[in-house]
Batch of 3 targets.
Target 1
Amino acid sequence: MIGIVLIQTVFGIGVGTQQSESHPSLSWQQCSKGGSCTSVSGSIVLDSNWRWTHIPDGTTNCYDGNEWSSDLCPDPTTCSNNCVLEGADYSGTYGISTSGSSAKLGFVTKGSYSTNIGSRVYLLGDESHYKIFDLKNKEFTFTVDDSNLECGLNGALYFVAMDEDGGASRFTLAKPGAKYGTGYCDAQCPHDIKFINGEANVQDWKPSDNDDNAGTGHYGACCTEMDIWEANKYATAYTPHICTENGEYRCEGKSCGDSSDDRYGGVCDKDGCDFNSWRLGNQSFWGPGLIIDTGKPVTVVTQFVTKDGTDSGALSEIRRKYVQGGKTIENTVVKISGIDEVDSITDEFCNQQKQAFGDTNDFEKKGGLSGLGKAFDYGVVLVLSLWDDHDVNMLWLDSVYPTNPAGKAGADRGPCATSSGDPKEVEDKYASASVTFSDIKFGPIDSTY
């Protein structure tokens, strides 16, 4: 084993000098009442989890494959002091490209030194801060092309309650901050995050047995999540998930809700309250050649309605509309026994859906839509991603899940086979897959489409 001198003068993870960090530009539009929209010059940044992590003055890896260096990373603080996050070659290494108001995320990218799978990027407000949104009494619109996403893939656009600066001001060790994509969290309290609060997540690290690039550590990174869009060309859903802690929260043990016994005892509602048209009784709405033809781009409009119609009011409803071929298409109406014939997410819809499907109502327990609104008050960050699922093959989105439902209502979520979505097969067969997000607009309700 090569002896490596531990460096003790960095005092937190640093940034590398092997590759300059140049954020790809991405414009979006800020709209005002009446539909007048102004272009905003923005950019995106790659999540730190995807970045090369190595020693400051060389190329020795701190993290290689799905394991930490035992020499450089014997404990969280030492590891952070010994390592840097490198700049990103967005197109060459990660398959990410932008043009004007459009961002394309590739699935499998074979670079000079490694093969990259998927990506996760954030919209920046400036070079060192994420763009913060408060969605209450507002409307968020974008156009998406899912025509190249098969079963088992998920082109996702969503919001999470991350720190605006990626945790740089809250945590001494989190120096790279938003400029290098730090601070990620979501309602699943992911344990695969390599650096949480600036500390390497090396404690109890277990390399994945089916993912050559990932593993899990002792801690998870939790925060409220609003899934505006999770989709491939066969299935789609939008889903709010609420956490009881404001902003990013580092969990451990029961507070993470990891095991089946603790799932509903953690700080986050992992199930959420989803609106999936197929699951809710309409199997002719979303797909190739259907009412919304996924062979073509579609514009997706999401409205966050407050009880009193003001920006400070309590969140009471999440509405969805689509625009394709010059026509505005209303969301589907629920056709499931025990649920009212509605076309939006409300607390009443969520309560009825949980009861009709026999699911635990953690959404209500964690605060319902008013709880989601409190996270919006804190501020949320826009995330774009493309991924495959090494846990359950994305069956929860596009197939039957659980796979042996014994007639369980709500298990049928999409048309994909229960044998589909295996990451090894997906990564081999659909390596050229991609998703394109474009024409992001934000403003008052009915101002962006």
Target 2
Amino acid sequence: MREGLFIKKNKDRWERVQQESAQGADEMATDFVKLVDDLAYAKTFYPTSRVTRYINSLAARIYLKIYQNRREESNRLLKFWRYDVPLTVKKHHTIILIAFIIFALFFSVGFFSASHEPGFVREVLGDNYVNMTEDNIEKGNPFGVYQDPNSFVMFMRIMVNNILVSFIYFFRGIVLGIPSLVSLGKESIRLGAFEHMFYVKGLAGKAVTTVLIHGMLELTAIIIACAAGVVMGTSFLFPGTRRRVDAFREGTKDGIKMIIGLVPVFVLAALFEGFVTRYYKMPLPLNLALLFSSVVFIVWYFIIYPARLSASTQEPKEVHA
């Protein structure tokens, strides 16, 4: 069959599937089976044609709908982290990138301010923390702060604190997102001053490899939490073609998805901080392997996977004979 005739024969059904929702599970299953048949035929006779990509996109979209309509609670929970969170993150990649730039900028401000103002570190981190850290450095245990006698209590305390702080940063964003970014900037300055405190002692590299065992996950989650606050706060300001109240409702929903999606990340970061970071004198290859695994997870789950998932579920373009 010529490609033009193949398209003409099935075009009306494809357009119905694209534009209208199925009236029930049976109709959806029937549409899916027919699309799979069409796809198999198209891949056989027109493997490089646009119509093959078009049918594949339609079939993929229906497959996701079928998956999303499963009623098992465990599947809904899995769907949330497998589809909802990554797609929402991808939708707001630009805001997350802006939040990361702000983090990097103010981290630099904190680091270089500490290098030019001798009292800046104490002003930002507090005398007690600085005195304790300097005392630990003199004892040859610069990161003793992570060696709480009770690992489990430390894990629980850090986990609860970080989750609560992330929700606070998020809800502050209701005022056009500005307070969330201010909170992120202050946190970044403190971290820059913290890093400089070890830099002047010749421990900059060790501070990076130690703190980022848990900090890579923790800081990424904080950046995204503040970005979620901006998503909520700016949705009312930039409604697009929607009513402002509808845009705000959608922005709040997206922000909540992002912030709840970060909870497992905070749990994992707290596990590392409570049970792993205390062994910062571990062999360097093991230390770097842990750090690299965190980087790979972050890049995959928050950048690569959302982009691929979004590309596979985007609206197909109309095909003309």
Target 3
Amino acid sequence: MPLALAVLALVCLASLAFGARPIPFDTLVEALTAFDPANGDHAVVHSRIPRTVTGLLVGSALGVAGAAMQGVARNPLADPGILGVNAGAALAVVTGIYLFGVAELTGYIWFAFAGAALAAVVVYVIASVGREGATPIKLALAGAALTAGLSSLMNAILVSSQDTLDAFRFWQIGTVGGRGWEAVGPVLPFIAAGLLLTLFTGRILNNFALGDDVARGLGQQVALSRAITALGVVVLCGAATALAGPIAFVGLVVPHVVRAFTGPDYRWILPYCLLLAPVLLLGADIVGRLIALPGEIQAGIMTAVIGAPVFIWLIRRRKAAGL
């Protein structure tokens, strides 16, 4: 845990230092401890702070949500798409642009969050129909079906409006850049509440790993426990997607990496995902800033470029991904 904290701190400092205008370490320290508004390097450092904070918040939210989602769905390939979160958020943003003319990021946030939450609720309600309740298989099937339907509706709107497509594509790519405090502030309470709720579900997820029947035999109220955990996942995924757009592989890869040294105990998996997921997201953002100077490649693209090979290697090394 101290090593994970140290790595996270170093990556945060690197996020403040590297970019189109690199900042020496001594200047970085001066900017953080004795800020001079007249110093251009100091101003650059402070302009990167909201971006770094966004990466911290979004990475932590996606990492913890991904681990909890894999546990509650008992699906090693679970990510925000399995509950229709990304599709719901995307359709809501498209609707906001098309019908209400929303053009600012702060407007996207509320539409995306509402769409993500509504989609997840619909998936859970559909999966709960029947005697068994919301089983892992029914959750996955309901999420896949809803995602397909919502994506079709979204594409129907986009092909009929070029203006909507032009505005939407910059949010859809997934990025932590260009986010100021006015965007971070409204989402911060939701991410904080989601983290507090989800981090305390470790024992619940451990029981789920044994199967619903065993968990029920241990005295756990399966439906209520799954609903509480799903609520935390929805809040985290919805807030992170609203702030940074749909970013793939963070919530999928990091829990698998963490399990390699923590084992299957979610009481340890969740805290480590809280620390290491931002390392992946901020690291991808830093690499994206450096490999295409003076421009940059967005973090949503870089997480896929970095995360996909790592995930394939993990699966091949372990021969199977299982929970």
